Amino acid sequence: MSTVDIAVVEDVWGAPFEELAGRFSVERRPEAWSDRRELLRVAGSARALVVRNRTRVDRDLLSSSKRLEVVARAGVGLDNVDLDAADGFGIVVVSAPGANARSVAEHALGMALALERGITQHDRSVREGAWERSLGRELAGSTWGVVGLGSTGRAMAGVARSFGMEVCGHDPFVVTSVEGVEVLPGLYDLLERSDVVSLHLALSDATQMLVDARFLGAMKPGALLVNVARGGLVDEDALADVLEAGRLGGAALDVRSEEPPVLGRLERSERVVLTPHVAGLTVESQRRVAEMLASDMEAVLLGREAANPAGRLRMPLPRS
After folding, report:
1. For 271, how many CA atoms within 13 A lie in the half-sphere containing its CB?
2. Which residue in the list 259, 267, 284, 305 is annotated as catalytic?
């Protein structure tokens, strides 16, 4: 089996990777994630593996990749990477915390604006030859509720404040103050007050289907739900039910429980704005992601500590 230093198995690239390719051997296979057999072959030959969110980096892959020292996840969420297994095998996992926070926040705001101003419907009707005007609503003066106050949630708070909105937030892991955010002790306190609720949480056993019928029933009538985190946070059937009942003002979903989704009730709703998991994909964010990952991979491959470990390890452990 031929060996390489770095294997890229999803669509992740940039100038920092070009520079790495001048110092290390690189195999670029952006579709390898979709073929498990090919993925195992490529990963098994590499010291570093670069993924985004489609590659299943599980115990089987990690155990069979005997040369692997570091997995680089282009982004923040790590639900596709078995961190415990990586720690157990002595493999460093690095990510790019905060690199796409501003991009995600701006996208979330844009989706909320599209709902409040009917932008997608107006665009479609004008293209069809109509010229039907309708009243929209301003975001200024309303309250944006941020669920999850990590780097993305905090960026969201800053963007919402710049639009003249009040911001409240809730995060079970945040007990100190956050600048410009009224941190509320209970999730349902936030739901009762917020005109827009956005999700900025990792997917875990504790957060799976967090947005269920009870959650949606506690939101203010006419409020908006924006999910730019993980699709598994939302019970999509429950969401479709409340939208069809006219209780919520709308929903904006960049992520889905199944990607790509099976077309259904949410796709047919005029009160839903949909995008294909692109909130964090901007030229600027991908440059930052590439810089952070390239720096950490180079450090690990040269025997130094990673700056942005997602697991317990900053340096790889010897493997038998």
Report:
1. 17
2. 259
Catalytic: 259?
Answer: yes
Active site residue 170: no
Same domain, yes or no, for 37 and 115? no
- Which 3 state secondary structure label does DSSP give 167? strand
Q: 149 and 296: one domain?
A: no
Q: Residue 277 catalytic?
A: yes
Would residue 314 count as lying in a domain? Answer: no
Report the residue count for the chain. Answer: 320
Interval 24-70: pLDDT, tens: 999 999 999 999 999 999 999 999 999 998 999 999 999 999 999 99
Q: Which of 47, 102, 200, 230 is catalytic?
A: 230
Q: Which of 47, 256, 277, 288 is catalytic?
A: 277
Question: What CATH number is attached to the domain comprising 92?
Answer: 3.40.50.720
Asked whether residue 287 falls in the same domain as residue 216, the answer is: no
CB-count exposure of residue 213 (10 Å: 0-12, 13-18, 19+): middle
